[in-house]
Amino acid sequence: MPNKRTSSLRLVAIWLGALAISLLGFYLLDHGIMSMQGLPLNLDLTPAQ
Amino acid sequence: MNIFSRVKLFALPLLLLLLGLVGVAWGADGAAPQLLRGDYPDIGISSRAVVWVLAQLHLFFGALILAVPLFVLVIEFLGIITGDQRYDEMAREFLKISLVGFTLTAIFGVILTIALFSLYPQLMGYLARVFDGQWLVYLGVFLLENIFLYAYYYSWNRLREGGQKWLHLGLGLMLNLSGVTIMILANAWVTFMMAPSGITTDGTVVGDIWDVMHGPLWHPMNLHRFIANIAFGGAVVGAYAAFKFLSSRDPVARAHYDWMGYTSNFIAILAFLPLPFAGYWLMAEIYAYSQQMGITAMGGILAWLFIVQAVLIGTILLAGNFYLWSGMSRSEGAARYQWLIKYIALVLVAGFLVWVTPHTLILTTAEQAALGGNYHKILGPLGIMPAKNIAVNLMLIATFLSFQLYRRADKVATVPWAGAGNALMTAIYLVAIANIIFVGVYYGYFTNTVYKVGSSVIQVASTLVVICSGIVIDSLMFRGAKKLPSHWGQVSDRSQYALFALPVAYTWLMGLMGYVRSSVKTHWHIYGVMKDNSPDNYIPTIGYAGNMITLVTVLFLLGLLFMFWIADRRIKA
Amino acid sequence: MTADSRWVFAKVLGFSLGLIFLFTLITWLPPQMEGEAPQEQVVKLETLTLDEFVTLGESLFNGRGACALCHQPVPAGRAPDLRKLNIATVAAERLADANYQGEATDAASYLRESMLEPGRYVAPGWGMMGSEGAIISPMPAVDKPPMSLTPAEVDAIIAYLLAKDGNPVTVALPRDEMR
User: Fold this and answer.
1) Domains of chain C
2) What would the 3-class secondary structure string for B318-376 be?
3) Is B5 on the interface with C (CB under 8 A)?
4) Chain C from 129 to 158: CB within 8 A of any A CB
5) Average pLDDT, chain C
6) If you count residue pairs, one on B and one on C, with CB atoms under 8 Å apart, how many are there?
7) Taking CB atoms and an 8 Å limit, are A34 and B432 in contact across chains?
């Protein structure tokens, strides 16, 4: 029987998951768009040139 | 057909043909003419001012009649697939109120052509020669457009049933295609003057007509004008709807015009969102073509103009958003989202203030000494592109949020994954905003120019991700949603004024952009090839431009009132 | 129109005109600058002194040559701030750079090469991304439109750039007719 503690844990997990997916998505977007323009980035998003 | 239409169909094309022949006869062989001051006809008043007024009016009405058939077609199509008759009626009404606009466009176009050939005969002769027989094509497409317009409008009731309705849509499509063709033909002439192609440095044509047309600025101009027309058209018909709303007492009429106004605002703001990006592409191509031209526009004498532009865009965004927030009163479910509005407003105002901050300050020597330079230490950095890019992207995201909240106001999601969907949507907003700010600050201020310019593409992409994911998530999440009561017509009178602010601001902004477009050529008719030696060969002050733009905006307003008045008489008849 | 709609019309018109007036007002506030077209100037070669040649170069730098548009102080500058830098010192640095592949041998010839063939060498940190992914120079060739500077005008600008820091001017005064 789901109690308050597990359902709020579930809520936190959903939000953290959403945040993680978004962060990853935009990180890949940054890399993709810059390298498409011939401006490569290091893993920490600093310019590689 | 009435007298307007008869005149337009036959006399005007013949006049254009005549002028075209005159122009071709005047043009010399080979190179572009190099003119002296005495070669220009003198009519006692500024030739430039005359052409300015005529060209701008032609463009205002032209933009309107290109835009309206586009969303009329889409709305008629919506009517077919939803089966809701009201869409069909609204489409027809939008077209009806803009019919006279076609005549006005044509009339101003002809007077403009006469003015151009009389006041700048050598330039027009040269252009007529460079563009070869293209003005004949233009004429032909113009005639076609007229034929499709009359067929589309007058056959509306006759071609209602089944397969015939699709034929009717086909006529509307042809009307749109011919209109867009006319625009891109004319765009080639204008962009040729700014960034000529297919010719040598002395103006001799070396390529074919395609080389001449396909300059570096042609497609950016085509895209920018295409999208801008749609936004502008939506704004203009919204003013009509707002006026009819305010002057009706009948609740059924008010409901109808409220819905019409909402649809117009929807078109005006939705089409507006991608515009800064199309403009950015145009500006980037200008810089790529000529650094001087780019800097004249943004870093030199015309730089303050973009501050004025910020005021206009701020007006547009604030008006559009205000209308959406006011519209939340139509639905009882909107109360859930009220608390977000002040934050959206905050972002809009802050973004506007950043955008309006200039970079270079014009100071006296004493002020310069006190400040320690030409730039303010804290506000100065807000005056350059990275800050402005952050501001505009955040303002667009904030506007899209207003949209999204409005669309959600009368629904409650019933899918089991609504919680996760909202979490994802929120996360996307937050991370996109953080990304835009991070990328703008880091690449904008701490790396070199190349990365700075490239990072703006990330910002655009981030905004587009928010918009696209918002549309996708909402359309999936609200499948089978529970609908809350919402009432068309249940909106304040005050909100309708936003629908007047929009077309006024758009019109004035279009005029301002015309001033930039013409002025970046500085003292050239055709940049780098044919010098302008007329008495008007200088860039006028921004105050003078402001007066001219106001003049054409007021004249356009009068033309619109005439257009709506005729439409009203048609509806009553 | 009914009395109702006439009143609405008046309010709407007033609002619209008021907004238009507001926009107009805003254009009167910023500095009112006119973009002057360059004036044609005929130069008498027989009596041309070095000082006049240098002054001519300066007016070209700020005017028709359009140099000052980009060669500005940071952060606005898109190109090295030539007015502030000591040209002879900087030219020597550039020529000594291992990446330098051009044919210039001194400051004057380096300047001439930079103006007529800017793609030969891109000063470090000032390049931009070209279409093939390599770093290229954003500097246009000054003898092409829209500047279309004559060789004598190019020399005048070189003379100005050398003279302003007190360096020796190593370009000759022009022999042919120039405008």
Assistant:
1) 50-163 (1.10.760)
2) HHHHHHHHHHHHHEHHHHHHHHHHHHHHHHHHHHHHHHHCCCCCCCCHHHHHHHCCCCC
3) no
4) 129, 133
5) 83
6) 137
7) no
From residue B392, give the alpha-carbon distance in Å to each of B230, B294, B508, B536. 20, 20, 20, 35
Return the residue matching tokens 């002025």: B519
B79-94 tens-digit pLDDT: 999 999 999 999 999 9
pLDDT of residue B75: 94
Using only C-alpha atoms, what is the Rg of chain A? 17
Residue B342 and residue B429: Cα distance in Å, rounded?
Answer: 17
b/e per residue, B287-305, with b = 16+ CB within 10 A?
A: bebbbbbbbbbbbbbbbbb
**B303 in Cβ contact with B283 (< 8 Å):** no
pTM, whole model, 2 decimals? 0.88
Cβ atoms A25, A17 nearer than 8 A: no
Distance from CA of A14 to the nearest CA of C (A): 42
Which residues on neighbouring strands pair with residue A47, listed in sequence order?
Answer: A41
Give pLDDT, residue B18.
Answer: 65
Distance separating alpha carbons of residues B76 and B85, to the nearest angstrom: 9
Q: Average pLDDT, stretch B514-539?
A: 93
Residue B520: which residues within 8 A CB-CB, separation 6 or more?
A: B194, B286, B293, B296, B297, B302
CA distance linking residue B534 with residue B116, whole number of Å: 13
CA proximity to B535, closest of B23, B50, B1, B208: B50
Closest CB to B538 among C23, C34, C126: C34
